[in-house]
Amino acid sequence: MLQAGGKFCMDAECALEIGQELNAIKVVSSSLSKLGKKIVVQFMLFDVENNRTILTDNVVSENIDDLEMVIKRISISIARETPIEKSAEVGAIVKNEEKSLTRRQAKGFAGFSFGYLFPTEGYDGNTEESFTADFRTGYEITNTAVGALFAIRKGFATNVYVSYLMTRKDICPYLGGALGFHWVNHDSGKRGDGFELTASTGLRLFRTYNFQVIINLDYIHTFNDFNDQAIVLTIGLLK
Description:
Largest sheet: 8 strands, antiparallel, barrel
CATH topology of the largest domain: Porin
Radius of gyration: 26 Å
CATH class of the largest domain: Mainly Beta
Number of domains: 2
CATH architecture of the largest domain: Beta Barrel
Shape: elongated
Strand order of the largest sheet: 6-7-8-9-10-11-12-13
């Protein structure tokens, strides 16, 4: 709801008129109405210079506690000039969406990491660290991340992983594991490839943003003729 000079308005024509009086580029109008225990928030975004409506939408707050998150969602929607349904992000899901819009909570991501592999067993007795890099892709569903990882580390590895994300805050510890296959480079003629089992832990930083910094620590065990085992430490970006 806009007010200027003691005048209230709820329609586009009135909002644009007030915007022109204030010499504004854009104007936002909003209203709250109660529907039983629910609160319905309607909002509109107007382009005063071009005399047009950019966005008009509404969102329902199940209760007063949910209202703060609703306002955050509206702010994201206005800033991006996109419908409210496209502003659903981790930490910004209202209760009615948790019940009915589960699919929207699946957030796709991809990223690149690099670091070092530290052998603890096998690897021809070589205990020196070696460079490693990986590309991972997947989906984040509430407090769970699942996906696939492709890595260059003493050869080539690919696996499928799952992680439990412990919080929805910007600093998010996690635990997880992976199962895949590792082709390890060895000098002898013995079989260097084999299934690989991974235990993981780490941190995701800036989790509520559309990008994240990931610090990952793995313990990997490759079931080959050399019984290769190692610790892998990497840091990277997810988007």
